[in-house]
Design goal:
16 helices, single chain, 16 strands, about 15% strand, about 450 residues, 2 domains, Aspartate Aminotransferase, domain 1, binds pyridoxal-5'-phosphate
Length: about 450
């Protein structure tokens, strides 16, 4: 069968100009930013693939909702609309709105966590782990072993290793387990999906041991797409039905609406248990806002409610996942080493394979991030030893497991020609690969150094 091009399923009504820059200007900007793209001004960037979080373009319907937003302090109609949309999607009775995902994490994990407690996950996202550890609890990642091999194809590389989960619950004792958190899709594990079968198996183990089961559901629609397309028996279901079944397996969920909520800010906590919801709601009112707006304006709640409906549109999801795959497939065909297969929201380049001559203590990922900016004005994110490296007692770098660079794709923002431009830039990256040098860190803060560290070329 002849397939036609999968086009962006929208027309563009409002445009935001991109300022083009010359290689000389970019060289200057890179120096001023101490070779750390986080320190660039967005106006200096041509294509911004730093993150897919909060960078979505909203629809005409969402913007209309911004005007309709009810800004009443208590009982706003925008709240009741959002509450109903989330209840219908998650099947949970108790919904707590928050300003973003990590605020919901803080409410729940300080309540469930504490000294001596443990959380298990396929892979905890960094803010999730930080909230768990901040409470005094321990976070343990149990991804399937296939997740570690960047070149291996597995349809659900984000799955949790259920045998190890059972072992670890036995080792720790079920009473110490605060919760099992399934991250869908598995963001830190490469944006890889989790199968419905795996989610069911995790739910069964949790039930067996009486352990709480939670979803970190930031990209639940993208995950549902992969289930429908890759999991036998799921092909005739709608994406929304699949998402509802996933939520139905869990005792609750946290979602950052900055991803599959298709908005720039927002999040929520959804729970089935009244006592737990009431305890979290008390802290919500102290730290975020009254229970019918949390950290959000009425207009934000309208936009999230509409976003959570639009994100399950089959044409949208097809375009979304195909555009990520398009970038991944083209780069693979050119010989760029990628984490395979491409995930839902991002493509991850293996910088250690691309620049084998740059030692890990000279940060090959940082070198690629800088080259992408130099050659194309493209901003990307190092996910390697700059982000996760530590030092031993002698001050020697303990490198991260992998040296990756993430190209995260904002939703409904860029067109295929923007992606073609990125692909062309990789052609130049490849030609010049053996001439690229590494970087040293001149200054770094004690925590989360990747945001503010200053570099210079070796
Ligand atoms: C983004 C994200 C979070 C945190 O959400 P914020 O809105 O950024 O606070 C939690 N988990 C996952 C998997 C995420 O991708």
């Amino acid at each position: 069968m002849q397939h036609k091009t999968i086009i962006e399923p929208f027309r563009i009504k409002v445009v935001e100009p991109i300022r083009m820059s010359t290689p000389e200007e970019r060289e200057q900007s890179l120096r001023t930013a101490s070779f750390n793209p986080f320190l660039l001004h967005s106006s200096e960037v041509i294509i911004d693939l730093l993150t897919d979080s909060g960078t979505s373009a909203m629809s005409a319907e969402q913007w209309a909702g911004i005007m309709r937003g009810d800004e009443s302090y208590a009982g706003a109609s925008s709240w009741f609309r959002l509450e109903k949309v989330i209840q219908d999607l998650t099947g949970c009775d108790y919904i707590l709105p928050t300003h973003q995902g990590r605020a919901a994490e803080h409410l729940l994990y300080t309540r469930l966590g504490g000294e001596g407690k443990v959380f298990f996950s396929n892979t905890l996202f960094d803010t999730t782990r930080a909230n768990i550890e901040y409470s005094g609890a321990t976070g343990v990642d149990l991804p399937i072993p296939e997740n570690a091999d960047t070149q291996l194809y597995h349809p659900f590389k984000g799955n949790l290793d259920v045998d190890r989960l059972r072992e670890e619950i036995e080792n720790w004792g079920a009473e110490k387990v605060a919760a099992v958190v399934l991250t869908i899709t598995n963001n830190s594990g490469g944006g890889q999906p989790v199968s419905l079968e795996n989610a069911k198996a995790v739910a069964t183990v949790c039930k067996q041991y009486g352990v709480m089961f939670l979803l970190d559901a930031c990209r639940v629609a993208e995950n549902a797409y992969f289930i429908q397309h890759r999991e036998p028996g799921q092909e005739h279901r709608t994406y929304r039905e699949i998402a509802q079944e996933l939520f139905g397996l869990a005792d609750g969920a946290i979602m950052s609406a900055k991803k599959d909520g298709l908005v720039n800010m927002g999040g929520f906590l959804a729970l089935r248990d009244l006592d737990l919801a009431q305890a979290c709601r008390t802290v919500l009112i102290i730290t975020e806002g009254y229970s019918t707006y949390g950290g959000l304006s009425g207009r934000d709640m309208e936009a999230i409610a509409t976003g959570l409906e639009e994100v399950f549109d089959p044409d949208y999801l097809h375009y979304r996942i195909r555009s990520t795959a398009y970038l991944g497939e083209r780069l693979t065909a050119m010989g760029i080493p990628l984490l395979q297969p491409p995930g839902g929201h991002a493509v991850y380049i293996d910088a250690k394979m691309l620049y084998p001559h740059i030692p890990v203590d000279q940060y090959p990922g940082q070198a690629l991030v800088c080259e992408l900016y130099r050659l194309g004005g493209i901003r990307s994110c190092e996910i390697g030893s700059v982000m996760f490296g530590k030092y031993d007692a002698g001050g020697k770098l303990i490198p991260a497991r992998m040296e990756l660079v993430r190209l995260a794709i904002p939703r409904r923002v860029y067109t295929q020609s923007h992606m073609d431009y990125v692909i062309e830039t990789f052609g130049e990256i490849l030609e010049q690969a053996d001439r690229v040098r590494g970087y040293r860190i001149d200054w770094e803060p004690p925590f989360l150094r990747h945001f503010t560290a200053r570099f210079s070329p070796v």
